[in-house]
Every structure is written in C-alpha cells, then in structure tokens.
C-alpha cells in the first residue's frame, strides 16, 4: 500500500512494496487457463486496433490475478483504462467486448486515467487490492503512482462493515427461517467480509494478504474468529454441510465477527 511515502524511484518503490512486475509473457503463462489466455489475447489485440492511442491500459485483477480462479464459478475481472470514456470510445470497445463475453466470463470495468485518483479515493479497498495484485495485459503501468491515504482506507472499511451488518440483520428478519437462503447469503457475504478484512490486516500489520486463505490466517491478529472464517470458506466450497440449527449458529457468529471488525476500525 502506498501511504504517501518518501519516494525512491517509482519503479523501485513499486517493486519493493508489491514485488516484481508480472511476467511480460503472460500470453504463454501456464498459470492462466488456456482458453482464457487465448480469449484475453484476442480481446487485447482487438482493443488496441479499435481504440489506438485512446487505450491507456488493460489490467487483469481479482481471483485470476491472485491464483484463486475457479472455472465455472469465478469471473475474469478486467479493467480497461481509456483517455476518454465518451460514447465514441465505448462504441469502439463494444465489438471486442461482445466477442470476449461469448468466450469467457468477462467482468469489465472501464474508466479514464484522469478518473483513477477520484475512483481510488471513493473505493480505496477495491483499488488498493487491484494495485496490490494485477497483471498488465496491454498498455502501460498506471498503478505505481497511485496513492491512497490510510485514513481513507480505514473509513471505507468502517462503512463496508457497518453496511454489511445492517443488510444481514435486515435479511435475517425477512428470510432467516429459510435454511437454504441462510446458506446462500453466508457464502456470498463471506467474500465481501474477507475483502474488507484484507484491508484491515494491512492497516494493522502493513502487509496486504495475498489471498482469502492468507486473510483468514491473519484474522487472529485482529482478534477475530479465524475458525469461523475457515468454516465459511468450507461452506462456500461445498465441503461443509451444516443442518438448519448449525447454519443459524454460523449466521449468528458471522454477525458477531462483523460487529467486532467494525469496532476495530475505530482503534486503527
């Protein structure tokens, strides 16, 4: 995380804090599934042709960039950065986007380079996560200079946790007596919580966990129930099959953990 540090060079700072750049030969990287690798190659080529110098960067982020991609379940998260996001540029992007979505589960974000500081201020958890772990597919590196204040990140953590807590309480009062809906809600909500907890771990320790499993492993450092989080990830993977009473206990413990995490943001 770049918290307005004294600068070395941008390249040295970025390498020191985030590790070496991703391989330039990502098109042949076996860590990326072959069909998606080929689809991304075509997508980038088509964007470069259609947009020319309007294209600033194409960035892969999310589960595939972190090594947490699950075929059939995960999206391929791509950020396209443009000089202008006016309708002519978006129209030029559409054919490549439609073909790519027919080939693999592409989830696209589009913004301009000028938007990046504002968006990162409004969504600091998301953009620090992208900054931490991404692959540059085309164009030039744009994240080395991105700076987000510690307080901005802390305040978004607080908002996300409080909002999640309110939504889950409201859900429970409406549908909490239906075990199948409790399970579905828990499996979706645990990913949201872990994204926020990863930012909290960084605020506490100075290091952002590289994966959901690493976030869970660091939960004890925050005074949170790491075993509960392991159980919820097992539930998400289909490895845990609790009955209705156990699901209710998991849901209650989950609410308690979110509340604890929200209180923690007041102390960081």
**Which consecutive residue ranges, at least 5 long each, have pLDDT under 50?**
1-24
Indicate how many domains the architecture comprises. 2
The CATH architecture of the largest domain is 2-Layer Sandwich
Question: What distance separates the N and C termini?
Answer: 16 Å
**On the 0-100 scale, what is the average pLDDT?**
88
Q: What is the CATH level 1 assignment of the largest domain?
A: Alpha Beta
What report would you give on this structure?
By secondary structure, this protein is of the alpha+beta class. It is 58% helix and 10% strand. The protein folds into 2 domains: 10-139, Beta Polymerase, domain 2; 150-264, Up-down Bundle (Four Helix Bundle (Hemerythrin (Met), subunit A)), CATH 1.20.120. It contains 11 helices and 4 strands, in the order ααβαβαβααβααααα. Strands 3-2-1-4 form a 4-stranded mixed sheet. β2 (76-82), α4 (87-103) and β3 form a beta-alpha-beta unit. α2 (34-51) packs antiparallel against α4 (87-103), α5 crosses α6 (124-132) and α7 runs antiparallel to α11. The longest helix is centred in the last third of the chain and has 27 residues, at 179-205. The chain is globular and about 55 Å long.
